[in-house]
Amino acid sequence: MRRATITGLGTAVGREVVTNHDLARTLDTSDEWIVERTGIHERRVGGTCLELGAEAARLALEQAETEAADLDLIICSTCTPDQVFPAVSNRIQDELGANCGAFDLNAACSGFTYGITIGQAQIAAGMERVLVVGVDTLSRFTDWQDRTTAILFGDGAGAVVLAPPSRPDRGLLSTYMGSEGRYADLLACDFGGYIRMDGKEVFRQAVRVMVSASLKVLADAGLDAPDVAAVVPHQANIRIIESAMKRLGIPLERAATVLQSTGNTSSASIPLAMDAAVSNGGIRDGDAVLLVGFGAGMSVAAALLRWGK
Ligand code: ACO
């Protein structure tokens, strides 16, 4: 099967910084409690999905040295679109000056990895350049008076350009998409409402599904956990990441994290963490990189790739 690889990566975050200390002024909480229970120090708030998504997409196209007009498809993962319809991806397509098909997908915090999986299939089927955007503005659906959720979320976007690799050994090796709808009520947001969740149970199930999805893509690619140079997990809670890494038997230092300064940005969290890891040398050419996301649904997705163009 023809492979796809990431040829460009771009990110954007909300302009306003909201620290734990800021939250502690209006909520019965503290910086110490939030850092100890989640690892989050601050989050970024503001912007629409269109603004953040288009900003990240432009940077990804620039890095990929690809013109928007040459894109074959735009996939936008979001569970917090600016409107019920049209899709955010249609507006991003227009904003970029692209001339291709565009659609949104909602797989909550697993959505970016779902998008990579669908994009890869389109490359295998003959497309040359697919833009995958992950963007969420969870702050609009957060009850800022509820200390159990307000501490967790932020706004951001990440985008990648997928194209066939110039070296045949680079690119996506295996992917997995899962859904456990029996857990749908653990984490939900109704029309006109706010995010509500059973945090403890989400935590437990998240670790389980992250580990099983990771093992599945490793087995499909014929790799073992120690072969993985970098894990890019969904950025919900540092303790979830620690538990999953421990169960996988991969040293914690190999996990890319950005949640300390972004909070949980849902669809954007994996590309944001990937960008940070590429910048700090945590991901290098030739590395086996494992992306693994989980979220409301309960959805889960993983992708294993050999990094490089
Ligand atoms: N500050 C201070 N105290 C708090 C706060 C707060 N912000 N929030 C809750 N507490 C209190 C609780 O009321 C409770 O008090 P009690 O013992 O008197 O009842 C105590 O702290 C312990 O609360 P727990 O809920 O047991 O705390 P826990 O260690 O489970 O941490 C947390 C809560 C951080 C939410 C954790 O469960 C978690 O991260 N779960 C996963 C959530 C998640 O990942 N959600 C997003 C999924 S991705 C997506 O699809 C959007």
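^ acetyl coenzyme *A complex. The first helix runs from residue 20 to 24. The mean pLDDT is 98.
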